[in-house]
Amino acid sequence: MNKKRIFILTVVLCIMVIALPTALAATTVENIDSQTPIDGNYGFSFKWIDGVTTAVPLNMPNDEGCLSIRKEEMKVNTVCTTLSDSVKGRSGIRYNNVGSYNGTDVDLKVTVIDWTSLNPKEDNESFYALTSNIAFYISRIDNIKLKFQFLKHGTDTPLNIKGYITLDDLDYNQYFEFDTSSAIVKQYLAEGNNFITYSNKRFQSKYEEVNNQGNGKLDGLVMTMFKGNYMELVFGEKAEDDHRASGAYFGFTADVLGRFTLPEPSKSVNKKEVLDTEKFEYTVSQLVPHSAESDYYNSFTFKDTINSYLVAPTSNQITVTNELKQNVTSKFNISVSGQTITAEALKTELEKQDFYEHTYTFKFPVYLSPSAPNNLFVDNGKYQVKNFGNFLRTTKTKATQETSQTNEVTTDIKRKATIKYVVVGATPPADLTDKLPADETKYIGDSYEIKPGLTTTYKDQKCTFNGWYKEEALKNKANGSYVLEGDTTLYGAWTCANTVVVPKTAAQTPLIILGVGLLSVATGIGFYIRKTKKKNN
């Protein structure tokens, strides 16, 4: 099976946050056929994406030693280094933008950890990495240990994933191992595969093709499901005389041994709290994992029924993108009926391989209906809106409809409230006092400051204002700042103990205002006005 090939690394992730790698007890290997159901939450692949993925070598100098033994097929689109102690933990390659995991763009960093030399040791022990695909090559060594780290794009922040890795077509005498640091979940071989053997020691799984006879594409595939933010793998080739100085490729594929169930979709909302006139946006993502052509989908539909008090989007406000941020809305027939949104994949798209191995993200805006009643706002002036969506599918081999529901998301909608200022009882004439503070409109939960008390404008004022109170009976004096809990009225009153003389105008004589005393503290005051006749001079 020695042949010129391009190997693609495909490590597959699921849409949920998981724990860091931990050492597991001995794993088992299952032999499965193409219809064996396997957990679809491990069904998201990241891979080399033409025009998107980039390769950044890490201390891979293309030195003279590795260049001198580079095979013809390795002379283009590779970087290399000869192996020495200075390489450990430093040399390798970073593949940027190899997919999107639960809405987060993913980078893959691959680093050389260690290797085992041949016996006797060869000169120019070398490691190669492809820069046009994710694949690796070793020369003049028995094996190499590589660390695969999953990082948030553009950072060194670890990204916890679930995924699978399918090693593609192990050639004669080739093998690989998962180190104890890798959290292996399950491992699979194709049903009836007699060409790959399995052993387990120190929580490592070792596979090798025991003879040079194959009976089909699946014979060389080994599928392993794992979880964590990194894993360590050992790739090698048994050192027999006729292979001593030869090299070995190790590549990967998205092929699945079995049949993925529908993975768990995810839902998010861009704002956890909004105002009652403000729009917010729902985002729903669903991975469509790899599928054999014999099991392509007969139907694939997204449905979401939104809250009855929200204004539903129109069909042209609903967009669908893939993990490459490409707009793929045209692959779906989108409709809105009442409060239910439906996006059904076109049957012509379901028959294409390109429909699979993608994460589809649906986005649409909503907002509270202006006619929503005020009595909705019962929880500290907020109305909590809950929402989840569903995906439904049938396949060629499973006609019964499968349903997968998203997580539930909530948004608190805040209601407006008014702060009013009212003077109880009678008041001095308007030209003797400040104007009442204007009503304020704020949102429940906002803070507000009590307005200053009123004053008279006449220089010989004899009336005083007793301040603002929370109760109409002038109890519970209000000073400083408060948090608005709903519509609020603040009450005040005047106390006028003496006569106040109103200045003359061209049309009238002085007005005498007689106060009625401290009774005004509780009830406001009454004013008695006496007009004197104009005297002849």
Task: Explain what the structure shows.
The protein has 537 residues and is mainly beta. It has three domains: 11-260, Major cell-surface adhesin PAc (Sandwich), CATH 2.60.530; 266-413, Immunoglobulin-like, CATH 2.60.40.740; 417-531, no CATH class. It is 2% helix and 43% strand. The protein contains three helices and 45 strands. The strands form twelve sheets. Strands 5, 7, 8, 9, 12, 14, 16, 17 and 19 form a nine-stranded antiparallel β-sheet that branches. The chain has a five-stranded mixed β-sheet with strand order 2-15-18-13-21, with no helix packed on it. Strand 33 (390-395) and strand 34 form a beta hairpin. The longest helix is centred in the N-terminal third of the chain and has 5 residues, at 64-68. It is elongated. Residues 1-25 and 500-537 have low confidence and may be disordered.
